[in-house]
Amino acid sequence: MSRALTPAERSILSHLVDEVAPLAEAKPDAVVALAQVAKLLTVFPAANIDAAVAKVRREAYETALEDVPAWTVAVAAKRWIKGEVSALNDKPNLSFPPLPPQLRALAVDEWSKARAALWRYRRLMDGKTERVVPLEDRRPLPKEWFQCLKGMA
Q1: Domain boundaries, position 47
Q2: How far is CA 24 from CA 14, 20, 52, 73, 111, in A?
Q3: Is the pTM of this model over 0.90?
Q4: Residue 1 lies in a domain
C-alpha cells in the first residue's frame, strides 16, 4: 500500500539526492584518477622497472579507468588496501597492486552503488515504490536451466 511522502520524508530524500547525485553523475577525470593510481602504486613499489615498463603500466591503468569518475578510483584503492575486494569474485594477491581490470571492477562497483542509490531516492521522491514480488507470485525458472546446471556439476 503506497502513501504520499510527508514533508519531512521529502526533505530527507531531497538531501539524500543532493548528496548522492554529484557522486553518481560525476564525470571521468583521467588525470585525477591516475594520481590516485600513483598513490596506490607507491604503497606497493615495484622492483627496478625502467621507464618503458612504467609508461606501459600507466597506459594500461589509464585505459582501464578512462570512463569512471576519479572518486571511485580513490575508494577502490582504499578497498584494495583494506582487503575489501569480495566484489572481484576471485582471490587476488593483496601483496601486490591490483591489476588494471581489478581496480576498474572495484571502481565500477562503487559507482554502481551510488547510481543505484540515486535511482532509488528519485523513484521514492516521484512516489514510486520498489516492486517486491512475493515468492508465490514469481514465475518458475525454465527447466532447461536446471538441465544445464546438472551438466556443470
Answers
A1: 7-152
A2: 15, 6, 35, 13, 6
A3: no
A4: no
Give the pLDDT confidence of 65-80 residue by residue, as tens digits: 999 999 999 999 999 9
What pLDDT does 115 receive?
A: 96
Question: What's the N-to-C CA distance of the chain in angstroms?
Answer: 43
| Grid cell of 123 as nine digits | 523513484
Number of domains within the chain: 1
Inside any domain, residue 115? yes
Q: If you average pLDDT over every residue of the chain, what do you get?
A: 85
What residues contact residue 92 under an 8 Å CB cut-off, 6+ apart? 85, 98, 99, 102
User: Which residues, at least 6 apart from 14, have a Cβ–Cβ distance to it below 8 Å?
Assistant: 125
Work out the number of other CB atoms within 10 angstroms of the CB of residue 51: 7
Q: Which among 29, 24, 5, 37 has a CA at the least distance from the CA of 123?
A: 5
Burial environment of residue 68 by CB neighbours within 10 A (0 to 12, 13 to 18, 19 or more): buried
